[in-house]
What does this fold into?
Amino acid sequence: MNPILSIAKRELRASFTSVTAYIVIALFLLIAGGLFWLEIFNAASTELSMRTFFTRAPFFLAFFAPAISMGLLAEEQRSKTLELLMTLPVTDTQVVVGKFLAALTLLAIVLGATLPYPISLASIGDLDWGPIIGGYVGLLFLGAAYLSVGVLVSSLTRDQMVAILVSFFCCFLLNTFGELASHTDGTVAQVLRFISTSGHFENVSRGVIDTRDLLYYLTIVLLSLSGASIVLSRRRW
Amino acid sequence: MSKAETTIEVRDLTKYYGDFQALRGISFDVHRGEIVGFLGPNGAGKSTTMKILTCYMAATTGTAKVMNIDVTTDSIAVRARIGYLPESVPLYDQMVVFDYLDHLAELRGVPSSKREAAVTHAVEVCGLGPVVAKKIDELSKGYRQRVGLAQALVHSPDVLILDEPTSGLDPNQIVDIRELIRSIGKEKTVLLSTHILQEIEVLCDRVILINGGTVVADGNFDELYAAYPAAERNLEKLFRLLTASTGAPKAVAPKAAAPADAGKYLPPESSAAPSTESSES
It folds into this structure.
């Protein structure tokens, strides 16, 4: 098997043998469920949609993605297994990508666990699946961007606490840049709005999958993972 | 011996950690079929040299080749030919022993058709049979050490680099592991570091003694004792003669030279740090 998959498989299995994965899933479901019910029982709402869920979810992802990614490389450094990993015939990029894929799979599982919401909605009425599918795709890409930032931060420290706090800070900043700059229209504001993840998510959550938005997320993933890979290599050379 | 293939070639290695110079030009060769003991006080540069050979870190200057492949230009190829047991045994505590070895065999490029046989063999030679289905964090210190050794040889590498492979083992286990290393050393190359001088005497064909980042002696026992008659054919005296009295750089001297050496000859104390764990097995 490809070393990337082998590393991803080990990491994923490790998160399910420890409690982390379960806590992350349970917490996310609790909050997502809360959002979902609020919307359903909102007397003012007359249409069948998951708009509230998809507008709030990015903010919660900024919390949850760091919880998933915090240990990826930090724990390897703390337990000294990084020394082993780095002396195996495996490139640093393969290590980083394998870790990232494990985290992304866990996130996909978490998001997949919320699928009963739209399914139950569809059973009581005529649900427009377009925005729902778009929303899920968008959440996955957004989550991938946050996770990659988390991988980068995790490569820089051996302390999981530092990793989660710093990546939380970064993701939160990425999420709120746009709003902070929303009342002005200077170049800086425009740049900030472009860098921010929230603006790119708006379209997606309305069911419009724009390749520019996806490219934006992929760019963040690519930059962060390259960064993490460079951090590992710098340790070596 | 000189006809044998050179498997490790180290030339003028230097390594700086910031301002501190850990290696001051180390050179040596190791050949196939040799078990070489890498000896020296704490901080002499043993682990650093091993880390350079295993491509964990780069030397500041100088070259190192394993199986005639340069560690900087083709590090992946070097890593594929090496089995490495670092000083702090790298284990995933949450994994079952078999899965851990299987995972590492896979990452070390053992094809899936041969993997089970390779893992079973490593389990057998390292005496891991009774714990193969246990989680690693349930294992005693001795078993953990042996799991670490098993991952280093699961892919039957050409070169085995072992940083203190017998630390934390009881006398029976030590004898077993020595037997194992000896049998591997017949066809492969083994470079091992240890603080147990007696181990070097019974196990190694050759000794490379380093101190303060330089090689102070290199040869088989007869050569070394002939060169240093003052040692009176005693490795401990030779060690003291070459490492305690002279030349230790300031940065090493206070913490390594005198106090650490004094304890080193008493095996129970030499593994003082991990011994807190060893009782719960």
Remarks:
- Strands of chain B lie at 6-17, 20-31, 35-39, 61-66, 69-70, 82-85, 159-163, 189-193, 206-211, 214-219.
- The interface with chain A takes residues 51, 54-58, 72, 76-77, 79-80, 82, 84, 86, 88-95, 103-104, 106-109, 112, 151 of chain B (CB under 8 Å).
- Chain B is about 40% helix and 20% strand.
- Confidence is low (pLDDT under 50) at residues 247-281 of chain B.
